[in-house]
Every structure is written in structure tokens, then in C-alpha cells.
Specification:
Blueprint: H1 6-13, H2 17-25, H3 32-45, E1 63-68, H4 75-87, E2 92-97, H5 102-113, E3 119-122, H6 127-134, E4 144-147, E5 160-163, H7 165-178, E6 184-188, H8 194-209, E7 219-221, H9 226-237, E8 245-248, H10 251-260, E9 273-275, E10 292-294, H11 297-313, H12 322-325, E11 326-329, E12 332-334
């Protein structure tokens, strides 16, 4: 049987997550009837808060939680190395996936409500996570930094480190346009992803600037993985009219597309130019090597960790304004052999 979570205890008791937290950590602040009801549910379900939480009554833990979208995605390795380089000597780092399982969100909330971590680096800021985060009793006192992704409105008050995804996508699309391509499609990520929404807008803006209408209709959504790229390729290449260039929301999608192209008689880049995003370690090893947008991934990890360290060590210090909240790092285009000029 799976272990009960704080979220399940709250639901069964008809109270909020924060109320369950107060029953565990500060029972004197809860009225007797509510406390009795929650304690009864805790006893019936066998829920047990981690003993680590009790250490906060004596001091604090030294655990930093890093939340990522998919632990198998190659972009996160350099970022996590950067985080460890700054925090590793003083803090233990635990990783958690955010992929949209409800149980995953519950575990995330359990850790924060039970105060088992001293800080959080979110390498994903999707709305379900952000909404649950701001509803916590100890938000915004809990130090949280966003890395890699743009900020959702719910988390606009938090410090962040990322590139300008809109401009990066605009620049990549502009490169394909300047190479003579007009039939360009953007293979984006899942609908609702903040990071791919910014890239979609950059793609549409570049197409519109070039006088090409219907940019939004040229967007195909896929899972941000090699398997997502394979599925998208089958959908695209089965059409009567095929694009001459594809801009993909990440390198994994691009690699998936490249693996399928020969099955449809398409040579890269002679018949189809493919552009990725992220410049992961596999991009240069692809056949042909993948053109892509490079993010300073290790730098993102290091800077996010430094900002978290500062927030943990100086909890009363607040940034002076919005310019200090968002740290925008530079991107660059890396042109390799998967893209080529479109010959008339």
C-alpha cells in the first residue's frame, strides 16, 4: 500500500494542507475539534511525518530540494552540476520530478509543509506547482529560486535565472528564414508549458516579421522527449506538403525527428533542415551534428544556487526591484551540419 500523504490527510479531514501542518508542528494553534479530527485521520491512515521535520524545533536541516521536469532529460545534468558546485559542500541536494502526476505534486507539498527542506530551486514553474506553492502557510518565507524557465504570474515575486526564450526562438527562426526557408514549422512542447509558450511567441513573431502569415498554424505540439520527436515526425512526414525546415523546442525532439527522417526518404539537411534548442551533450554527436540554441546551463545552475544561498543566509533582505528579481543570461546560436541554405 502506498504511504498516505499530507494532501490525503487534509482531504479526508476536510481541512487545508496548512491546517494539517499546524496540527503536526504547532498543535496549540489549532482548535480542539479540528485537532481531534485531524489526529483521528492520521491514526486511521497510518500517516507519519518524517522525523526530519522535528529537527526544526532544535535547529534546521541542510537539505535543498531541486525540482525538475524529467530526470532523464539531458539538459538538467549541467545545471545540477552547477548547483552542486555552489551548494554541495554545505547542503544535501535531493531531486524531484514535476512531471504532472498528482502524486508527485503531493510529495512536493509534503516536503514543504512538513518543513523538511531549507530552500528550493524550481527548474520548472508550471502553474499546478506554482499555485500549490503560493498556498503554503510558510510561503514566501521559504527561500525559492526559479532556474531555466520563465516565471509564472503566481511566482512573479521570486528571483529567477534564465535566458530570454522569446528572443532566442526569434533568432533561431530568423536564421532559418535568412537561409532561404519559408516552409518552416515549430515542433513545440506540451500545451501549457511556460518555457515553450515563450518560444512559440518568438517563432510566430519572426515569421510575421518576414511577412509569412499563419505562424500559429505552423506549430505542432509534442512531448519534450526523443519519443515526442519521433511521434511528431510521423505526423509531419505523413502529410502531402512537408516543411523544408523544422525548429524544435529542445534537442531531444530534434534528435527524435532526425532518427525518423530517413524512413520517409528525407536527407538532413539536403531535404530538411533541423534546428534544436539547448545544445545538450548529444547535439554535437548527432548524425549530422545538430544546429541548436545554446543555453549557459552550468551558469544557470551556479547563479540560481548563489541566489538561493543568499536568500537562505539573508532571509530579511529583499531585492530592490523587478530588475533584480530576474537575471537574464545570454544565449547563442550554434550552427552545425543539420541546417543548410534552401536552394531555389
Amino acid at each position: 500500500m502506498p504511504k498516505p500523504t499530507i494532501v490525503e490527510v487534509a482531504r479526508l479531514a476536510g481541512v487545508s494542507n496548512s491546517t494539517v501542518s499546524r496540527c503536526i508542528n504547532n498543535p496549540e494553534k489549532v482548535d480542539r475539534k479540528t485537532l481531534a479530527r485531524v489526529r483521528k485521520v492520521i491514526e486511521e491512515t497510518g500517516f507519519r511525518p518524517n522525523l526530519l521535520a522535528q529537527s526544526f524545533r532544535r535547529g534546521r536541516t541542510d537539505i535543498v530540494l531541486v525540482v525538475i521536469h524529467n530526470i532523464g532529460s539531458s539538459i538538467f545534468s549541467d545545471i545540477i552540476d552547477g548547483i552542486r558546485g555552489v551548494l554541495g559542500d554545505r547542503y544535501s541536494i535531493i531531486l524531484m520530478e514535476s512531471r504532472s502526476e498528482e502524486q508527485g505534486h503531493s510529495r512536493f507539498i509534503d516536503l514543504l509543509v512538513a518543513r523538511q527542506v531549507v530552500g528550493v530551486i524550481l527548474l520548472c514553474s508550471s502553474p499546478p506547482f506554482s499555485r500549490k506553492l503560493v498556498e503554503l502557510d510558510n510561503f514566501p518565507r521559504l527561500p525559492v529560486v526559479i532556474g531555466l524557465e520563465p516565471i509564472s504570474e503566481d511566482l512573479a515575486s521570486l528571483p529567477s535565472v534564465h535566458i530570454d526564450n522569446h528572443q532566442a526562438a526569434f533568432d533561431a527562426t530568423r536564421y532559418l528564414l535568412d537561409s532561404g526557408h519559408r516552409e518552416i514549422m515549430f515542433v513545440s512542447g506540451e500545451r501549457g508549458s511556460l518555457i515553450t509558450q515563450d518560444r512559440e511567441r518568438g517563432f510566430v513573431a519572426a515569421m510575421a516579421q518576414a511577412g509569412i502569415a499563419g505562424g500559429a498554424a505552423r506549430i505542432l505540439h509534442a512531448e519534450l522527449s526523443i519519443q515526442g520527436g519521433i511521434a511528431a515526425a510521423h505526423r509531419l512526414f505523413g502529410r502531402e506538403t512537408r516543411p523544408t525546415a523544422l525548429f524544435c523546442a529542445n534537442d531531444d525532439i530534434a534528435l527524435g525527428v532526425m532518427s525518423v527522417a530517413p524512413r520517409f526518404g528525407l536527407a538532413v539537411p539536403a531535404d530538411l533542415s533541423i534546428m534544436g534548442f539547448d545544445d545538450t551533450i548529444y547535439a554535437a554527436m548527432a548524425n549530422p551534428p545538430l544546429s541548436t540554441v545554446a543555453q549557459p546551463t552550468r551558469d544557470i545552475g551556479e547563479r540560481a544556487a548563489r541566489r538561493l544561498l543568499r536568500a537562505m543566509e539573508r532571509p530579511d533582505e529583499t531585492p530592490a526591484g523587478t530588475d533584480e528579481l530576474a537575471e537574464i543570461l545570454p544565449h547563442r546560436l550554434v550552427i552545425r551540419q543539420s541546417t543548410a541554405p534552401r536552394l531555389a
